[in-house]
Amino acid sequence: MRPTGPSMDVRTTAKRKVLISGASISGPALAYWLSRSGCAVTVVEKAHTLRDGGYPIDIRGTAIEVVRRMGILPRLRDAHIDSRRCTFLNADGSELASVRPHIIAGSVEGQDLEVRRGDLATALYGKVRDDVEFLFGDSIDTLDQSGPAVDVTFHSGRRRTFDLVIGADGMHSATRESLFGPEERFHRYLGYCFAIFTMPNTFGLSRELMLWNAPGKAAALYAVGDNDELHAFLNFHRPRPPFDALRNPDAQRDLVATVFADVGWEVPGMVSAMRDADDLFFDTAGQIRMAHWSSGRVALVGDAAYAPSFLTGQGSSLALVGAYMLANALATHRDHTAAFAAYERDTREFVAMNQALVDNGAARLFPTTEQALEQRNTMLRALVTMPAAPVRPAHSALALPEFAPDAVTPVP
């Protein structure tokens, strides 16, 4: 299927030069659409190579249309994990309920996708690697907007000038901090910390998730296929974020081990595996909420501007949709100020609705009290005994515009 996108009739030789910081999801997606609309795009990524592997992520609703227009939907459908069941366990490890995963996730079975994060990143990179300049193993050091463009000094020492710079560098965005100030100004903490890592599949699990709960604590083992590796997940409630541990892996391991000491099921083995894991990812569940997503010639996209948290299941989808909307705005408006304003105007309500999912009970899988846990368990038992009902999607939708017919963005 021919991808739907902007016209390739580039009528100017003065290509707009755009630097994107971050080569995860929103960065390469934005690079694809900007390149097709006639921009000269450079992507800088602090990692030395493309990051493969990683935990499963969801592609839902409007984001499905984005990847269809990019021409990568068939590849992602082939990579769909297609989990068969989600088994909930009591505190003593006994089975509480077993349900189809889409019922819990709020996804639309047969339409929405779940893939390994690395599979999506690889598909996006494959679409742009021949048309976009990638600078791996480097990062932005300083941004100077005092002139008619953005003078960028990289950590490596190289210096370049760009017409626009886009921060697609995640929830803990250095681009955002350099422009708007410390993350604490925009971070909305949601009361949870989590650790994700891989461990050997010694349980014989296949295409399934097992979730253990106690008040304020949860542990999950996720087999995304039939291989010998599991994704392990330890989540716990904490009233205040542990700032002292966020940049200290040893402190993270100690904190998780302390929280999960003396609990049952397979958690002791998971904690031991976490101690030895070389891919531990520890963070807080939180959102980024900002009054504005741009300053001068620099804008933010994806988690850097509006991280919704893993509790919504919408992070990757917002990244894909936001990248499309930003690129479309830049293709439609020759003036970057007007483009950034249109991007915010047309995308903000969609972002707000999806971020609000966590306020509408999206954290019910991780109850913090005995009463809330029992209410959640009662709901699960009802799902098993009652006839199946249509699942209402957890996400909110956005009608995507077609790219501007001319789709040419010369330097203003």
Characterization of this structure:
A hairpin with a 2-residue loop joins β13 (208-214) and β14 (217-223). The chain has a single domain (17-388), classed as 3-Layer(bba) Sandwich (FAD/NAD(P)-binding domain), CATH 3.50.50. The protein has 412 residues and is α/β, with parallel strands linked by helices. It has helices at 26-36, 62-70, 73-79, 101-105, 117-128, 174-180, 249-259, 267-276, 303-306, 315-332, 336-355, 370-385, and strands spanning 17-21, 40-45, 56-59, 85-89, 95-99, 113-116, 133-136, 140-144, 150-154, 159-162, 164-167, 187-200, 208-214, 217-223, 229-237, 281-288, 294-295, 298-300. It is built from 12 helices and 18 strands. The strands form 4 sheets. A 7-stranded mixed β-sheet has the order 5-4-13-14-15-12-16, with helices on both faces.
- Tell me the name of the CATH class: Alpha Beta
What proportion strand?
15-25%
Rg result: 22 Å
The number of domains: 1
Low-confidence stretches: 1-12, 387-392, 405-412
| Shape field | globular
CATH architecture: 3-Layer(bba) Sandwich
Distance between the termini: 34 Å
What is the CATH topology? FAD/NAD(P)-binding domain
Element-by-element helix/strand order: EHEEHHEEHEHEEEEEHEEEEHHEEEHHHH
* Portion in helices: 25-40%
Helix/strand/pairing category: alpha/beta
Chain-averaged pLDDT: 88
Per DSSP, the total helix count is: 12
Major β-sheet profile: 7 strands, mixed
Strand arrangement within the widest β-sheet reads 5-4-13-14-15-12-16
CATH superfamily: FAD/NAD(P)-binding domain
Find the count of extended strands (DSSP E, 2+ residues).
18
